[in-house]
Amino acid sequence: MATFKDFRNDVKPNWCPGCGDFSVQAAIQRAAANVGLEPENLAVISGIGCSGRISGYINSYGFHGIHGRSLPIAQGVKMANRDLTVIASGGDGDGYAIGMAHTIHSIRRNIDMTYIVMDNQIYGLTKGQTSPRSAVGFKTKSTPMGSIEQAISPMEMALTAGATFVAQSFSTDLKDLVALIEAGINHKGFSLINVFSPCVTYNKINTYDWFKENLTKLSDVEGYDPSNREMAMQTLMKNNGLVTGLIYQNTERPSYQELIHGYSEKPLTEADLDLNQEHFDKLVAEFM
Amino acid sequence: MINQLSWKVGGQQGEGIESTGEIFAIALNRLGYYLYGYRHFSSRIKGGHTNNKIRVSTTQVRSISDDLDILVAFDQETIDLNYKELHSNGVILADAKFDPKKPEDTEASLYAVPFTEIATELGTSLMKNMVAIGATSAILDLDIHVFEEVVREIFGKKGDQVVAKNMDAINAGFEYTKEKMDGNVPTMQLEKADGKHRMFMIGNDAIALGALAGGCRFMAAYPITPASDIMEYLIKKLPALGGTVIQTEDEIAAVTMTIGASYGGVRAITASSGPGLSLKTEAIGLSGITEVPLVIVDTQRGGPSTGLPTKQEQSDLMAMIYSTHGEIPKIVLAPSTVEEAFYDTAEAFNLAEEYQCPVIILSDLQLSLGKQTVEPLDFSKVEIRRGKLVTEELPEIPNKGYFKRYEVTEDGISPRTIPGTKNGIHHVTGVEHAETGKPSESAANRIAQMDKRLRKVENIRFDTPVYKNAPHEEADLLIVGFNSTRGVIEEAMGRLEKDGMKVNHAHVRLVHPFPTDELLPLVQSAKKVIVIENNATGQLANIMKMNVGYAEKITKFIKYDGNPFLPHEVHSKCKELF
């Protein structure tokens, strides 16, 4: 059986020292081993940006696509081979700006896969512009007078879009993060995990210390019930979205794959590509 | 006796014009006639003029006819917009309800038949279309029982009574026309057809059927005219094969999901029209650099932007050859008949996997939506070839090394593993990468990988890159086209030959990489070359000049008003050259 070390490769990440993304990388590797995967049965699909490089830093099948499109690529991979474990990942710009439509529609669609967003509230790789997660007033190279747009609340948004698994974590809480990724992989449907992953170079506001001061662990909230959508929404609103842990999970709703009419139980990759003559003749006859 | 008939039915969109044409055409197709239908419609659901022009012949026809024998009109607008196509013996069958008026400058005859009144008397005005079919049958001296089977198929679900009523309506239209106009109406009796059963389908049906035959088991697409029929067909048929179609949130999701599925190892397709293809261009580049097979259909319509969304145009040619930033290997096919649309689509999946690159199947509105009689498709001609897809067990790579997915090889094509394959792990990225897929910015690697990718398609094998009908060693004129202009050129060529001209015809089926070697001798041996195309700038003519040369010989005949070419237009333009 594979251990987390089997999910390591020899590529040195090009992230800045201290970047939150290192922990996310480690957490994915550990979670993959913990759920009993072999490297060849995991596909990590990532977007563009600093965090988008993550698929190249894990010893598994990996696809580093185009900006904002990790989700449709990942869904295609899962549709082709339902036996694979598919993880999509990228930054907040990737998932909540250029790729927002895919985020919302992936949530609605509920294909069995996990989406991990490394949320640093800034554009890092392009050297410090505002992100849809930047707070009002946040000064960046593209908002020198401070951002005047409202920040997106991804967890609330996910709940309203009909998410079946919504979680949030902080990159230094490695143990919690690993557990959430495992739960996300095991969840039968689409799981969204937003991870606060500080940018040490361009975000001097939302720092490690800032998160430590401002985050509330849901495990510390008395009576919190992640199966209660209303409670999830209220708790998020009350805490301005700054909570960590499993926010909401619906285990009742079947995944997309389970609902598709006629969808093969076997991976489509094993489908017989040959139509037989009889089947073809039947199709042809319909046009006569 | 006539061996060819041109019939048109017109009215307001949403009042059953399409189904009237459909019932008429299907019945005649089953008698063994060759049909060619072209719909004029607008980008709206109800209202606005629409018509369906159907050509009936005892031999295969692949273009709209110049003139018209019978015009069935449900409103005055239909008469006013279309009467000029009628020849002097032509007949207008119009609903008496709107008190039809014959324009002064036509020798055609007008007969008012109370379509609506007869239908209403029989139960519902909705059946006025059936009355019109009956009236047409009277003029054609056609046994109305030929419609019974089709009417039963369409209305059978609603019960025997509805079927009977519709047949009554056809009969009433027939009897009324026969009785009231006996002796007045010129009958147009069609020669008997061969009675063979042939398919009657649109190009999009053939593309979808070709995809199924070619092993496609997944589609991701976004609805758009005139491509949606492909996804609508596949969503009906794929479940029986374990596959499915996902209607995505947008065109970008459609193409990237298709790339994901293809990378995942299943044969997948996406289909759209110009606006969708514009949105897909970045992803086409991704497929190019990551060498993930990708099959895309572009059914061209009037551009740019929303342009003329329901009209014929062939203006995406350059965009399909060149679109995406940077340089990638790409294959662009342009089937010119419904039959070719079937075979080429099936073959596109082989090419995509063999050359590991995007393959675009270029169609156009006329080919994709024109409904026509199709010669039997030979399923045994369809092959499944998966290129260098690794299916055998792979040896373990020491020290967690990566599989050389982008190995530099002589033909440029590298072995390909799909996720799930043990010891086949590699990285895939749109960033320039080394043989294992890991990012690399080294100059030497850049050149090696770029050259490797581009040489893949240098010697592409494609059965018939150019369709040729070239009976003359030395021709006065070479006519060149692509996609749906095949039929109109064939027809014009026949007329020019009768005029005593020596004409060759070349139809480009592989538009990229351009089959220069195939065309060069034909261009060299012709006194003049004319390129027929539905766009405003002569895109194919320019590509010919660029690749084949002989610019001074090459002229273009362009049409970009949204309508397909008619045979007489091509005929007279070619004559003008001499």
TrEMBL record, chain A:
InterPro entries, per the entry: 2-oxoacid:Fd_oxidoreductase, OFOB, PFO_beta_C, THDP-binding, TPP_enzyme_TPP-bd
CDD domains in alphabetical order: TPP_OGFOR
SUPFAM superfamilies named among the record's database cross-references: Thiamin diphosphate-binding fold (THDP-binding)
Claim: Iron is one of the keywords in the record: yes
All residue ranges annotated as the Pyruvate ferredoxin oxidoreductase beta subunit C-terminal domain in the record: 199-264
Thiamine pyrophosphate enzyme TPP-binding domain mapped to chain residues: 48-195
UniProt keyword terms in alphabetical order: Iron, Iron-sulfur, Magnesium, Metal-binding, Oxidoreductase, Thiamine pyrophosphate
Domain of life (superkingdom): Bacteria
Cofactor(s) recorded in Swiss-Prot or TrEMBL: [4Fe-4S] cluster; Mg(2+); thiamine diphosphate
Entry annotated with the keyword Transit peptide: no
Protein name in UniProt: 2-oxoglutarate ferredoxin oxidoreductase subunit beta
Organism annotation: Neobacillus kokaensis
From TrEMBL, chain B:
SUPFAM superfamilies assigned: Pyruvate-ferredoxin oxidoreductase, PFOR, domain III, Thiamin diphosphate-binding fold (THDP-binding), TK C-terminal domain-like
Ranges where the Pyruvate/ketoisovalerate oxidoreductase catalytic domain occurs: 14-175
Gene3D superfamilies hit by this protein: 3.40.50.920, 3.40.50.970, Pyruvate-ferredoxin oxidoreductase, PFOR, domain III
InterPro entries: 2-oxoacid/accept_OxRdtase_asu, PFOR_II, Pyruvate:ferred/Flavod_OxRd, Pyrv/ketoisovalerate_OxRed_cat, Pyrv_Fd/Flavodoxin_OxRdtase_N, Pyrv_flavodox_OxRed_cen, THDP-binding, Transketo_C/PFOR_II
The keyword Oxidoreductase appears for this protein: yes
Domain named Pyruvate:ferredoxin oxidoreductase core: residues: 475-557
Keywords: Oxidoreductase
Pyruvate flavodoxin/ferredoxin oxidoreductase pyrimidine binding domain span: 210-450
Name the UniProt record assigns to this protein: 2-oxoglutarate ferredoxin oxidoreductase subunit alpha
